[in-house]
Design goal:
Shape: globular
Strand content: 15-25%
Helix content: 25-40%
Number of helices: 13
Distance between the termini: 32 Å
Low-confidence stretches: 109-116
Strand order of the largest sheet: 2-3-4-5-6
Mean pLDDT: 85
Length: 368
């Protein structure tokens, strides 16, 4: 098995509190953001109280009940959670690799060589509880399937906020978008390339909840958490794979919403958009597209900066260059990069209409 060495301190210190919130939510911690502090369920050990805290200023977790060693970092939290879930001694190197892969960090050094890094990634995932099968021959991860029969019973009302944001009711119906009246959330089923239900995410419509928990969270219904490893799937690939194969191009956006906006603007029959559900474009996700014969990947991340050359802008440029360095030798990669200040802060390339989107597309850039 190939073993990688990661710069764990660099990863830990560069994680934003929003990224940590997403990861802890994926682990079932139900994090609430309050003044640069996350209040979470005590997933570090068995318990339902919200007495696990994450402090962004120190990048450390603190458990206020039950832990013999109450202060630890995000890697140790993953190790604790996975050890309990899998009933094994989940080693720290695996926890570091888990966090690194989740956010798309490349290893700093390759310790042992095997044919491809994807194979090593797959081998490291063998004990992940949401994975049912891994094939090194085909480099395929098969995630466990959920029973989604209940989706047919959820209401499908007109979701006015999304209609105002440029998503038609027809497209929402096509993608099985439902509504959770209990949590006031938009229900977004995720399917793998074969149509199997592998996860469900909710987009809250309650502003206060979005600020505390984040806009998107795994759906929880009757004590069942419908989470899945987002890094090993692409939202929309099931519905759009034939279009992508035909055109040999794919747009990669951050959120599911952009996939639906693109479908509304250009028609589902022309939809070649997928979403990575975050800002990290993972090697396995790139491989899913390359394996379909894609010759150009157009990356359209959210405008996470206010001015050119500010710190956020420089971070985005580094992220885009990192994507090119990792995958540019296998496929042409271009970027919807807002050099002319067309979009609002934090807007996606699809958020503000077809005209602006086409302008971004026609002026897409390559970073070398």
């Amino acid at each position: 098995m190939q073993i990688y060495d990661y710069d764990k301190d660099a990863i830990k210190n560069n994680l934003t509190i929003e990224q940590v919130r997403d990861l802890i939510a994926e682990l079932g911690g139900e994090p609430q953001l309050q003044h640069e502090v996350l209040l979470c369920k005590t997933i570090c050990h068995c318990g339902d109280s919200h007495k696990l805290y994450y402090y962004d200023n120190t990048k450390l977790c603190r458990c206020y009940t039950g832990c013999a060693e109450p202060t630890f970092d995000i890697f140790e939290l993953v190790r604790k959670v996975k050890s309990r879930e899998l009933d094994c001694d989940y080693q720290l190197p695996k926890a570091i690799q888990y966090v690194a892969q989740y956010f798309g960090y490349a290893p700093s050094e390759r310790i042992e060589e095997t044919p491809t890094s994807i194979e090593a990634d797959l081998q490291y995932l063998e004990n992940y509880d949401r994975i049912s099968n891994i094939s090194l021959e085909t480099k395929i991860v098969e995630l466990k399937e959920y029973d989604g029969k209940f989706l047919k019973n959820l209401p499908r009302p007109k979701i006015e906020p999304w209609i105002k944001d440029g998503i038609s009711q027809e497209i929402m119906d096509f993608y099985e978008i439902c509504y959770d009246p209990k949590n006031c959330g938009i229900v977004i089923p995720h399917r793998d390339v074969n149509g199997r239900l592998i996860g469900i995410r909710e987009r809250t419509l309650i502003k206060e909840n979005a600020e505390l928990y984040g806009k998107y969270r795994p759906m929880k219904l009757n004590k069942q958490m419908y989470n899945h490893p987002l890094s090993f799937a692409l939202y929309g690939l099931y519905q759009n794979q034939e279009n992508i194969k035909r055109v040999k191009k794919a747009f990669v956006f951050e959120s599911e919403k952009s996939v639906l906006q693109y479908a509304t603007m250009f028609g589902q029959e022309n939809n070649i958009a997928v979403a990575i559900c975050g800002s990290s474009f993972i090697q396995y996700q790139a491989w899913l597209l390359i394996n379909m014969g894609v010759q150009e990947i157009i990356v359209g991340l959210d405008k996470q900066y206010q001015e050119l050359n500010d710190d956020e802008h420089k971070k985005l440029v580094r992220n885009l260059k990192g994507i090119h360095n990792k995958y540019g030798q296998f496929v042409t990669i271009s970027y919807l990069f807002d050099k002319e200040n067309l979009l609002s802060y934090k807007a996606s390339p699809t958020d503000e209409g077809k005209e602006k989107f086409l302008q971004l597309y026609n002026n897409r850039v390559n970073l070398y």
